[in-house]
Design a protein that fits this description.
Blueprint lengths: L20 H22 L5 H31 L4 H10 L4 H9 L2 H12 L1 H12 L2 H20 L5 H7 L13 H12 L3 H20 L5 H35 L17
Helix pairs in contact: 1-2, 1-6, 2-7, 5-10, 6-9, 7-9, 7-11, 9-10, 9-11
C-alpha cells in the first residue's frame, strides 16, 4: 500500500524508467516495518487463530504491495496525465486547489503535520488490524487497492505538485482518482469498533483529507470520488466476508460427528 506514499520523482523521462526503483524503495523502507509490527505482535498473542490471522494479513498486504508497484508502473507507462481536467473540475466547484497547496507550503508547521499524517497511513493500517483484527477491513483494503486502478486508467493524473511544477519532465505515478489515501483512511474509521480507536481513526481520516490537498498530492474531486468508492467497497467486502463465514459454518456443520466408542467390560463387570 505504500506505493502511494512516494508519488513519484522528478527526472528527464516522459515515462518512468523500469523497474520503478523509487517506489520499490518506498515499499521496503515504509511498508516493511509496519508489517513487521504485526508479526511482532503475533508472537505475543495467546490465541493461535489470532496469530494465523496476523500472518495471513501480512502475507496479503505484502503481496499487494508488489502488485501495486507493478500496476503503478504499467499505468504510468501507458496513460498520459490529465491533470488539467481534474483542476478544471475543482475550479468548477469553486475550490482553489493550487492556492490551498501554496498556502500550506508557506506555513512550515502546518505543512510538517500534514506531511507526517500523509506518511503515517501504513502504520495506521497495521495498528488498526492489531487492535481490531477485523477481517472485513482486510478484505476492503485489498479490494479497494485492486479496483482503484480502473480509476487510474480512466482518469490518469499525477497530482498538483507534480504536474504543475515538474510537467512535462515528470515520471510520477498516475494515482489520483480516486484518492486511495482517503479511501484507506475511511476504511479504518469504518472498521474500528473500540470507541477510543474509532475517534482516533476518524480524526486521522479528516487530517488525511487535508493532507492530500495540502501536500499537493490530490485534487478535491479525488476526495469526493473516494467517498462513494469507499462505501461501495465496504459493502462489497461485507458480502465477501458473509460468504466466507457461511462457508466456514457449513464446513463445521458437515463435519462427521464423533461415533461413540462402546465400553467393553472386564473382570467383575462381565455377565
Amino acid at each position: 500500500m505504500v506505493f502511494l506514499l512516494f508519488r513519484g520523482r522528478s527526472g528527464t523521462h516522459a515515462r518512468p524508467p523500469l523497474p520503478g526503483v523509487d517506489v520499490i524503495s518506498a515499499l521496503v523502507v515504509l511498508q516493511a516495518p509496519s508489517l513487521l509490527l504485526i508479526l511482532l505482535v503475533a508472537f505475543f498473542r495467546n490465541n493461535e487463530q489470532s496469530r494465523r490471522e496476523d500472518f495471513l494479513t501480512v502475507l496479503i498486504f505484502l503481496l499487494y504491495g508488489f502488485y501495486g508497484v507493478g500496476m503503478q508502473i504499467f499505468v504510468a507507462h501507458h496513460f498520459a496525465a490529465h491533470d488539467p481536467t481534474l483542476l478544471a473540475a475543482d475550479q468548477f466547484l469553486g475550490f482553489p486547489t493550487l492556492a490551498v497547496w501554496h498556502w500550506v507550503t508557506s506555513h512550515y508547521m502546518i505543512s510538517a503535520v500534514l506531511a507526517l499524517t500523509y506518511g503515517l497511513l501504513p502504520w495506521m493500517i497495521s495498528l488498526t488490524w492489531i487492535f481490531e483484527q477485523n477481517p472485513v477491513m482486510r478484505i476492503a483494503c485489498a479490494v479497494a487497492g485492486v479496483l482503484c486502478f480502473a480509476g487510474y486508467a480512466a482518469m490518469p493524473a499525477v497530482g498538483p505538485r507534480y504536474y504543475w511544477v515538474l510537467h512535462p519532465l515528470t515520471d510520477s505515478a498516475r494515482n489520483c482518482m480516486p484518492s486511495m489515501h482517503l479511501t484507506w483512511a475511511l476504511i479504518l474509521a469504518i472498521a474500528a469498533q473500540k470507541r477510543w480507536w474509532k475517534i482516533t481513526t476518524g480524526v486521522f481520516a479528516v487530517l488525511t483529507a487535508c493532507a492530500t490537498i495540502g501536500c499537493g498530492q490530490h485534487y478535491l474531486v479525488d476526495l469526493l470520488a473516494a467517498i462513494p468508492f469507499t462505501l461501495g467497497v465496504w459493502w462489497f467486502s461485507q458480502r465477501i466476508q458473509d460468504v466466507i463465514s457461511a462457508r466456514a459454518r457449513g464446513l463445521t456443520q458437515d463435519s462427521p460427528e464423533q461415533i461413540p466408542v462402546p465400553v467393553v467390560a472386564f473382570g467383575n463387570d462381565l455377565p
